[in-house]
Amino acid sequence: MRSPDTIAELRLAGLSKIYGNVTAVHEVSLDVAHGEFVALLGPSGCGKTTTLRMIAGFVPPTSGEVFLGEANVTQLPPDRRNMGMVFQNYALFPHMTVRANVEFGLKCHRLQRRERDRRIAEVLDLVGLDAAADRHPRQLSGGQQQRVALARVMALRPRLLLFDEPLSNLDAKLRIQMRDEIRRLQRQSGVAAVFVTHDQEEAMTMADRIVVMSKGRIEQIGTPADIYDRPETRFVADFIGAANFFEGVTRGTGPARVFCCRSGLMLPLPLGAPDATTLVIRPERIAFVTDNAQDALRGTVTRARQIVAFMEYIVTLPSGDLVIVQAQRRAVAPQMSEGDAVAIAWPAADSILLTS
Amino acid sequence: MAAPLALLAVISFKDYQPGRGIIDEWQLGNYTRFLTDRFYLDVLWSTLLTGAGVTLLTLALGFPLAYALSQNRGWKRSALYMGILMPLLTSAVVRTFGWMILLGNNGFINRTLLQAGLIDHPVRLMYNLTGVIIALTEVLLPFMVLALDAALLNISPSVIEAARNVGGRRTRIFFRIILPLALPGIVSGSVLVFSLSISAFVTPSLIGGAQIKLMPTIIYQQAMALLDWPFGAAIAFIMLFAIAALLIPALALIERRSRLA
Amino acid sequence: MHDVSLSMLRVVNGVILLYLLAPIVVVVATAFGTSPYPVFPPAGLTLHWFDRFLSSPELIQSTRLSAALGLVSTLCATTLGTLAALALVRYRFRGKASVSVLLLSPILFPAVVLGLALLVAFTRAGLAQTFSGLVAAHTVLITPFVIRLVMASLAEFDSSIEEAARNLGAGRLRTFFRVTLPIIRPGLLAGALFGFIISFDELVITLFLAGPGLQTLPIRIFASIEYSSDPTISAISTCLIVAWLLLGVPVYMRFLSVHRA
Predict the structure, then answer these.
(1) Residues A146, A25 within the same domain
(2) Domain C58-228+236-260 class in CATH
(3) Is residue A61's pLDDT more than 50?
(4) Which of A206, B48, B79, C121 falls between 20 and 30 A from B173, CA-CA?
């Protein structure tokens, strides 16, 4: 007997969508807990939007089921699922005022006049748009339209919030502002949310857990730290942040265990490391060291670039490998420049080992 | 809609005998009758001639209007647009009636020309092809203007500016750049006006009277007065064939050009 | 552009526009003339012909018939056309291209041929010379216009707005009536209005399909022009011109402005 705490707010069981001979989504299974904020992250075409639309009921799944709490909602039409969706271009009703936009859903759910008015006032105050209640969408800025879209769904107090890349049409500064705003409102209301985005920064800063998708499949589900520090597949390691990849094999046993790269380079491994075919190390974990430091690799700086707040170097090793190194800009003294002979090293424990 | 047309096609192959109705036998008599009789061939020729004449005239008159329309924006364009569209809101009957008043021997045009001393006796403008062509051109002019305008709007002004920039003079620009680029509009407008003028019924019957026999009037006569539906049907299809013979190559031309663009 | 050629163009266009609007001006002017046959320019000023129009029982009956026919046909065409436009824009189905061509074709099709075809088909079905037959024919004629104009409104319509409505709890019907319909209203009204005007003014096909007691106003006008030239005709025509202008221009301007916005 499951206690109410362990029943997920949203459960996807083996959701698939096949169009002809194209598989858009393959066997997606996921649990979203009550109040949790989950991001579906991936490049365009990875199936994240199709998955969201299957949850909302706009796309019938080829197989698999959707559960809201204990109820199987797979066969329910989109107007009976008790989920609020915020669309990429807000989808406000152009012929209605802000107030009427928010009131629409309340009328559909047959709330009484007094209750409707109360909720409209409450939710417009929440998003800070009470002054604009009588304006039409075309008179509002992008950010304001975004907030009306939010208010519209929140007035209904749904069990689940769905977001379809709602921030991609906003400029950078506004995007960051709205990120915080959406997250704050979601936390405040305690409603579970599924947020689709292709922007890793968005996913990393907003989500409790991230679902990384590629080509219709789930690559990994985990917290932002999990995804970044412990990627489970090459795709995830490559998609999130930057990474250096070394192909090779693990050789030897005990403390003499090393990673033999195809290029001939030997890299140190942490104790108890499993067998692996790929070694990944993030650029910011690599440091410039003195020539005789432990595990130091000697090489030459072949490119030096300033990326806003930090420096990005490419160091070429005698084995032919190119290593991307990210370092803070030095407070004093000149930075490294092209042609410098350097030595780099990183803590063996920071190496990520993959078998794909 | 396809069904009645198919039915018509079938009937065109049947024979009609007055008093006996339509005989249920397939035969090409109707078609051969039309195509071998001198009288009917004249009708065909007059019809095609009228169509060609009207098309050329609408092209000549329509281009300046369309050019002005495409060059203007804002209220000027809207006003001009309304002016060109307004005749379309008026039925062909009404406009043709107006032409009858203007074209008669005692009509406005003749009286003015006589008073001005430009002619000695009234020019025959009614009940002949000339009058029909004058009236029909006016009736169909808006269609040509709209088709040309659509094509002219597509010509990006920077293309013209680039031509001026490399030293092109206005006439050269017109003939070498504007005209060729407006070709799709010219073709679609011409096809439209040609088919409309060939199949015009109202204007030719009112202005042409009993003397002028064009295909649409003959079809009507055969079907309604003489009750020879099959013959009327055959003539109708010959007319359709004439239109299609023009339409298909024209459309292919547009298709090819748009693929090149 | 060079000043001289610009003013030359203006003059030329002025003349062409005059030519374009001449018959309309003539008809309206002769409606007020005092002479017993239409003369331009009119001799005196009188409202006599309008009076004759409004006190003629046959003419009033024809006007009523045309209006009723127009209303019913427009209703059918608007319903069918809107549904068809929605289907064409929203759904993908096999043979979509050919279906859309089929649905939009009656616009350019020669009226005489269509009239004859419908006559043949309707006689078989017992619909010739009946009101329902006329309604059916007019609906077929008008629907393409409605489809075109509604599709234009739909082109700028974002389907996610409908999805948002569904998500907020609205069923299909409510979504259609509260969200979709208000947004496509401009295109729909424009289509309905033009449909009505086209049906009211329709002559050729109606000539084939009408019967005694089913004489629409255009048919009466046509018949009376053939027999006599009476300024009453000018009066009727003037009423029609004014009516269509008053109705057509505002609706079209609203449609255009929504379109461009």
Answers:
(1) yes
(2) mainly alpha
(3) yes
(4) B79
Q: How many domains would you assign to chain B?
A: 1
Shared domain check, A287 and A258: yes
Residue A16 and residue A92 in one domain: yes
Determine how many CB atoms are found less than 10 A away from the CB of residue C224. Answer: 17
- pLDDT score recorded for residue B26: 57
Touching pair C, B by Cβ (3+ pairs < 8 Å): yes
User: Measured between beta carbons, which residues in chain A are less than 8 angstroms from residue C165?
Assistant: 93, 104
Are A91 and C163 within 8 A, CB to CB?
yes
Least Cα distance to C138 among C116, C152, C118, C108 occurs for C118
Pairing mode of beta strands A278-281, A352-354 = antiparallel
Could you give the ipTM of this predicted complex? 0.81
Between A233 and B30, residue with greater pLDDT: A233
User: How far apart are alpha carbons B233 and B13 in whole angstroms?
Assistant: 8
Confidence (pLDDT) at B246: 78
Residue B22 lies in a domain: no
Asked if residue A262 and residue A127 are part of one domain, the reply reads no
Q: Number of helices (H) and strands (E), helices first, in chain B?
A: 14, 2
pLDDT digits (tens, 9 = 90+) for B55-98: 999 998 888 888 888 887 777 787 888 888 888 888 888 888 88
Chains B and A touch (3+ CB pairs under 8 A): no
Give the pLDDT confidence score for residue C145 in this predicted structure: 81
A329: domain range? 242-354
- C158 has a chain A CB within 8 A of its CB: yes
- Mark which of A238, A263, A283 sits at the end of a domain: A238
B15 is a domain residue: no
Residue B19 lies in a domain: no
Interface of C with A in 174-233 (CB under 8 A): 174, 178-179, 182-183
Residue in the structure block whose two tokens are 């003489």: B226
Backbone angles phi, psi at A77, to 5 degrees: -70, 160
For B196-245, how does the pLDDT look when each residue is reduced to its tens digit (9 = 90+)?
888 888 888 888 877 778 888 888 888 887 777 777 777 888 888 888 88
Q: What is the pLDDT of residue B22?
A: 58
Question: What is d(CA B185, CA B189) in angstroms, rounded to the nearest whole number?
Answer: 6
Within this chain, do residues A137 and A153 fall inside the same structural domain, yes or no?
yes
- Asked if C158 is an interface residue toward chain B (Cβ–Cβ < 8 A), one would say no
* Burial profile B154-176: b = 16 or more Cβ within 10 angstroms, e = fewer: ebeeeebeebeeeeeeeeeeeee
Whether B67 is covered by a domain: the verdict is yes
Q: What is the pLDDT of residue B13?
A: 59
CA distance, residue B48 to nearest chain C CA (Å): 14
List of residues 6+ apart from C226 with CB closer than 8 A: B206
- The answer to whether residues A105 and A18 belong to one domain is yes
Interface of C with A in 52-71 (CB under 8 A): none
Cβ–Cβ < 8 Å for A52, A40 = yes
From A243's Cα to the closest Cα of chain C, the distance in A is 38
**Boundary residue ending a domain (A215, A238, A261):** A238
The size of the B-C interface in CB pairs under 8 A is: 183
* B57: nearest CA partner in chain C: C16
Residue A120 pLDDT > 90: yes
In chain A, how many domains are there?
Answer: 2
Q: Does C20 touch chain B (CB under 8 A)?
A: yes
The reported pLDDT for the residue numbered B182 is 82
Give the closest of A79, A92, A93 to C166, CB-based: A79
Give me the average pLDDT of each 10-residue run along chain C (261 residues): 72 87 86 76 78 84 90 91 81 63 66 81 78 86 83 80 90 88 85 88 87 85 81 85 83 63 39
Listed by number, the residues of chain B in 141-180 with a beta carbon closer than 8 Å to a beta carbon of chain C are: 141-142, 170
Contact C22 B102 (CB under 8 A): yes
Between B136 and C2, the higher pLDDT residue: B136
**Domain boundaries of chain C, sorted by first residue:** 58-228+236-260
User: Domain with B104 in it: what CATH number?
Assistant: 1.10.3720.10
Pairwise CA distance, residues A40 & A35, whole Å: 16
What does the pLDDT look like over A22-49, one tens digit per residue?
Answer: 999 999 999 999 999 999 999 998 999 9
Interchain CB contact of B61 with C (< 8 Å): yes
For residue A156, the chain C residue with the least C-alpha distance is C168
Nearest residue of B to residue C199 by CA position? B91
